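2024-03-11 09:14:02 DEBUG pipeline.ingest accepted 1 chain
2024-03-11 09:14:02 DEBUG pipeline.ingest length=227
2024-03-11 09:14:03 DEBUG pipeline.predict start
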Amino acid sequence: MKTVGAIVANKFVLPLFALLFWLITEPFLPVPIRFYWGYGYFFILLIALYHINASKKLFFLYFLAAFSIALLSFVDFKLPYLATQQARLILEMVFSVTAAINIICYTADFKSNIEDGLWGAILGYIILAGCFALIFYGVCNLDPSVSHFSVQPRDLIPPPGTHPTPSIENLLYLSFITITTCGYGDIYPVSSIAKRLCSIEACTGSLYLAIFVGRLFAVHQHRKNNE
């Protein structure tokens, strides 16, 4: 019971299970609710970034970016302007890239607390896949004149003169099978930029696991030598 209590009390466990709950329930929600449910991802991401950042100024910048994304999403939902949509997509991509870099740096640098490093790295691995899915989504919507990924049944119907845009569910699925290097082949990159992004994600996922296991072993060995 003491071990279970220690696990539940860890600062990364609640965001981890909240994120898993979000991933499982999101596809079953109606479209209007799913729009607002999408904010949950950024809220969970903010909690994780709060725990891994010692600098409160950096976290404030993350919070400001997340608030701006939410505001632009609301404006885009009520008054769909192209400029507003593009600004939101670019901000989401920048936010995702910086968050992914922050998570990788934390995983490579955690020192004394093995439990925080373990749960934080698991949470970071899932968030990393979500960040790449947002990048894929931004690329598809910023340049809809090009077919970036193969089309799936649930993909959105495109306006005339544009190509189908994969749904965020399909892009999340693609991101997870890419970062874990499964590659089932049912959805795959088509354009040059999409192929490069998927290659970067596959390399990042492999390096992430290698760095995490190496750091975990180093911390454990350091503790053992000091005992």
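2024-03-11 09:14:41 DEBUG pipeline.report The CA atoms of residues 189 and 195 lie 5 Å apart.
2024-03-11 09:14:41 DEBUG pipeline.predict end
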